[in-house]
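Two records follow; treat each independently.
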Amino acid sequence: MTGEPILRDYLPAAIRRHGSRRAVVADGKTWTYADLDRASRAVAGYLDDLGVGPGDPVALILRNSAEYVVADLAIALLGAAKVPLNMMLSTEEQSYILADSKARVCLIEQDRLDVIEAARENGVDPHVVVRGGEPGAGSWDAAVNHAPLADEPAVPPDALALIMYTGGTTGRPKGVLHTQRGIAANLLSHLIEMELVAEDVLLLTSPLPHSAGFLLQAALSKGASVFVEPGFDIEGILDRISRDRVSYLFLVPTMIYRLIDAVAARGDVDTSSVRTILYGAAPISRERLEQGLRMFGPVFMQLYAQSEAPNFLTRLRRDDHRLDGGNVRRLTSCGQSVVMAQVEVRGEDGAPCKPGEVGEVVARSPYTMIGYLGLAAETAEALSDGWLHTGDLGYLDEDGYLYLVDRKKDMIITGGLNVYSTEVERALAQVPGVREAAVTGIPHPDWGEAVVAFVVPDRPDVTAEEIQEASREVLTSYKRPKRVVLVPSLPVTAVGKIDKKELRRSWPGW
């Protein structure tokens, strides 16, 4: 390693070091670290022949698979810029991202080639490498059987390493730009905060283009084993835990709820191997978290961050997840700032808030984005004063624990009073008959906005009127839902967050 480190100095170097250890299990096949090293160097050689070099954008439209992992490593070897696209995005969204990122090459599933046709209509024509099609030129087989990369190119630390697109729940997705310098630092932060050991068996079920992909890189850097699943199948996950002795899971809260319910229902699942359940991406119900702690023990760890500073800005440690002692309220916190980040809460005047005072969460770290692709005004707003302005509202306690209360855009102003949707959701979780709840503001002719709760009931005889009446016990008058809408399930985005935009779109009217 010479000069400032880049991702290649850590990740592919570790892959080569771990040799014959089991690395990845996907699609029924086991890959050793040596297998990953050979395949990724072949794919890197193929991309090199196509002219891909440092900072060049390479798009991935691949399902959770070993091929995704190999492509990720190949891009790191070349110092190129990964553009990972979630398979759950629409053709329109994916073709937009290809055009916006100006991807030179796209590694893509055979059944998603319609995205390439749509991108060509937008004037973008990337070279295509197809997974799942016939062998031959332009196929994955051709890439993975190519001669290995002969010479690793010199890569400056300020070269682009990642263009990560936001979920796009408000307007067009934004391309979040990260450099080699930043992504290398980000990997180190994951290694510090995840508390991984080489003996861990990590289970990933959420899309690799998002948080799971960073966790995968950290696990491979450590020499752990990773089971990469195509999606969240609860019966398959229970079998995986008991049969393959999974020790480390990454789940969003809705997945944790399904896991708790399934373990309770089956009663015969051996979960004794589970050492860590890392969670994040959305608020978690305190009642359900307490249920999980009673079931699994002190194995939970929470992360909080954004695509603009991936995965770790704060962390709620295992020993913060306690059901005894005086700090049980910390179960509603997302933890303290991590080693490599600073977190503050600021008021509208930009001054730091006092403990307990709500303001906007701001942060800085060596892995904060350098900006949004082609969006100078949005970049200046998000990175003003050298801090990342997250758009999240929250407060710090006297010990520096962060408590989130809402997204700025999700705060409801009803009758001139501020209502935080997450506060209402947490209160409704205490109401008998409520399994899950999502709260949003709906335009109202008298109140400006009115609090509306979309509720998944936990039994068939529950009525909306019953829940609304019971909310009087846990919420003050102006925070109580003006309407409760019973739904069979809550819609989620591609990364597992509750899709409040979709809920508002489904509003049946007053």
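The next record belongs to a different protein.
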Amino acid sequence: MTDRRVFVIVIDSCGCGYAPDAEAFGDLGANTLKTIASSNKFNIPVMKQMGLLNIDGTDYAEGCDLPTGCFARLTEKSMGKDTTIGHWEIAGIVSENPLPTYPDGFPDEVIEEFEKLSGRGVLCNKPYSGTEVIRDYGVEHMNTGKLIVYTSADSVFQIAAHEDIVPVEELYRYCEIARGMLKGKHGVGRVIARPFIGSEGNFTRTPRRHDFSLIPPKTTMMDALLAAGYDTYGVGKIYDIFAGKSVAHTVRTENNADGMNKTLEFQKEDFKGLCFVNLVDTDMIFGHRRDIDGYANAVSEVDAALKTFTERMRDDDILMITADHGCDPGYKGTDHTREMVPLLVYGRNIKSGVNLGTRSSYADIAATILDIFGVNSDIEGTSFWDLIK
């Protein structure tokens, strides 16, 4: 076994240019990184030095003459553009079929079964913005006790409830009921608890969101690492996205700053293996709300925290920074965008300045990580370890 540690930080939705098949998804022209790079809030000296703006296709911003990291852009093979599909592919699973989505709301049989099992009525049952749905249905929910059920362009069954009407633990129980019934053809990627507080005209979502995901259908890099005796750590949504499977240590986070602080705490621990981090604010708070300056500022704050992280890295530590899909805040609509994602790889004892080009799958991350640890597995992806070690 090796004493190495690999940290994978996912800046949620920070794509770097529309994918070759973006037109089929209605996303031709989307480019999250290009959009936020136009903001005066965009300040990323650490990631720029690693080579973020040297990635293929990044001709709208000045790169670095001597990058300290290796860099690439990754093309998604899976048929989707959501958190679950993206993270699964990063971990080595290519999903050939998209998870089910419900642009017209869930069918009657799904809602009727959920009402029967939960003992509560349902409001809405449409694709909706998370902030707008509580604005439009919050009062009726508080008056009737009915649950606000809604979806989006993603494969999600979301349940919103006011914490004074439905205590959070009870809301989680309703989500577990939904997760138990949503299988097979209605096997959505995630059931999401969306608690909120406040009064009419001033409803606010709380950080006690919780995701209930499908169990990954195939072996992930975490499965292989754990079976080989390595540690697996998850920060933020990672445990939820993988339904807890092979994530041995986990910690929830309230926001990106908290996520980076928790990562810095794990960095102090003497472990061997993987620390997998999701930073969700870029997507949830800024991407979907099409807030360009807010998104740019959030990425800049992550970059500032990375300065501390890189200073504390051990000689054999390896840092990978990537994303799981796009959510271009300058693009039409409010949904995710089908994009390639950036990859930065940095470590004191690996090569610097290597352009790994445009790669065919997010799963190359998983294949490389298993190669680093000398773990054999039949997961998807092509390792680039020999190119950078």
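Discussion point: The radius of gyration is 20 Å. How would you locate this feature using only the token line?
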